[in-house]
């Protein structure tokens, strides 16, 4: 009975000693501080500044006016006056306009056919060929928005003129579109790119910076083991399960103030969507941080040198971004990629935080991502304990100095 009590005391003693010892290791390592502090502090601000202003406006366009009438000139003026587009020049023919597009002078071409004014006068449908550069979807989106608005406005003006010139002119004020729509852009009222991507990207920044710092610490420990017969002299001796949990408490307590800064103050600084309650998203981020820590501890044996952590970081960042559902909806992924994405804490972290922050959901509304993060945290903790034990045993056997007979 006393041995069980001693083991329990030793387990808790190891946990708290590791917790304090890990603070010393973190704050005495300039490289780790760079990724634990400088990266989370600087990246969100830098990225948001790059994505401001949020909308792509005044996209250069070329006009090929084959009609050369008052109606075609009015159409060109509307294109130039729109918020999203501007007329950079009038091309003689489509071939010249295409050369401008190849030279990146314009990113859209509007062709006004010869019979444009004639068809409008005959109350027939006029077709306007539009050529768009699809190399950047944001430019295409701006051109498409502009042409859609102009098309609707032209249609409304033509109907109004038709009614005014008819015997039923007295009811023209009551006439409008047969069916009209009213749009509500929930979660991103400005339709801005930064408001769309930064709210999810900050979660990936938190995860990746945390994992990178843990891997760098692991690489430093591995280097010390090679020099000391497979033993790290700066590590606390004791149960691996207690050591890993003590390290996790250290990292999470360091990252909680950074989480408040990134998730609360950065959106306020740049007027990004910020509607949820702070208590909800801070409680939600707790399992997100633990899951990221244990995932980093599970991957740590892969790093044999401090510099090797950069390879893991660079290799996983792009993959995790694609799997998160931020750039491509997860429901449209194949089952294999969907399952792989579900194993990444940032995937569930993005889904839950976007719901809370942008759509004013409560913690209960995002219960599925919340519970999945706790499941991942528990699973990665168990795997980290098993893998770390095996790695420590391997280091003791591999780096042990052979005895001299």
Automatic annotation (TrEMBL):
Membrane topology: Multi-pass membrane protein
Residue stretches making up the ABC-2 type transporter transmembrane domain: 32-386
Domain of life: Bacteria
Keywords: Cell membrane, Membrane, Transmembrane, Transmembrane helix
Subcellular location: Cell membrane
Signal peptide: none
Family matches, as InterPro entries: ABC-2_transporter_component (IPR051449), ABC2_TM (IPR013525)
Entry's transmembrane regions: 20-43, 193-217, 248-266, 278-296, 308-328, 370-388
Keyword Magnesium set for record: no
Name recorded for this polypeptide: ABC transporter permease
Organism: Heminiphilus faecis
């Amino acid at each position: 009975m006393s041995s069980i009590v001693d083991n329990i005391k030793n387990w808790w003693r190891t946990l708290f000693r590791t917790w304090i010892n890990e603070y010393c290791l973190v704050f005495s390592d300039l490289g780790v501080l760079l990724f634990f502090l400088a990266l989370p502090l600087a990246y969100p601000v830098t990225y948001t500044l790059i994505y401001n202003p949020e909308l792509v406006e005044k996209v250069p366009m070329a006009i090929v006016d084959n009609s050369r009438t008052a109606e075609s000139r009015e159409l060109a003026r509307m294109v130039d006056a729109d918020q999203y587009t501007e007329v950079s020049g009038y091309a003689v023919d489509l071939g010249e306009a295409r050369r401008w597009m190849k030279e990146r002078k314009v990113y859209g071409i509007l062709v006004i056919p010869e019979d444009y004014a004639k068809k409008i006068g005959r109350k027939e449908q006029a077709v306007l060929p539009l050529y768009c550069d699809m190399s950047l979807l944001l430019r295409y989106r701006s051109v498409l928005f502009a042409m859609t608005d102009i098309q609707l406005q032209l249609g409304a003006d033509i109907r109004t003129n038709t009614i005014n010139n008819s015997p039923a002119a007295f009811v023209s004020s009551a006439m409008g579109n047969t069916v009209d729509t009213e749009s509500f852009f929930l979660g991103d009222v400005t339709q801005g790119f930064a408001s769309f991507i930064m709210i999810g990207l900050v979660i990936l920044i938190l995860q990746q910076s945390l994992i990178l710092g843990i891997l760098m610490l692991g690489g430093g420990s591995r280097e010390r083991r090679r020099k000391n017969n497979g033993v790290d002299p700066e590590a606390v001796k004791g149960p691996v399960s207690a050591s890993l949990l003590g390290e996790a408490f250290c990292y999470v307590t360091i990252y909680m103030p950074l989480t408040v800064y990134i998730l609360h103050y950065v959106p306020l600084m740049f007027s990004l969507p910020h509607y949820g309650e702070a208590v909800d998203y801070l409680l939600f981020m707790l399992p997100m941080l633990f899951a990221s820590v244990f995932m980093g501890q599970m991957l740590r044996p892969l790093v044999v040198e401090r510099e090797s952590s950069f390879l893991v970081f660079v290799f996983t960042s792009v993959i995790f971004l694609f799997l998160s559902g931020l750039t491509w909806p997860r429901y449209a992924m194949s089952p294999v990629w969907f399952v792989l994405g579900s194993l990444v804490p940032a995937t569930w972290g993005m889904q839950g935080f976007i719901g809370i922050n942008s759509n004013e959901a409560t913690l209960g509304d995002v219960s599925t991502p919340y519970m999945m993060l706790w499941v991942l945290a528990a699973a990665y903790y168990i795997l980290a304990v098993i893998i770390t034990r095996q790695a420590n045993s391997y280091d003791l056997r591999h780096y042990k100095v052979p005895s001299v007979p």
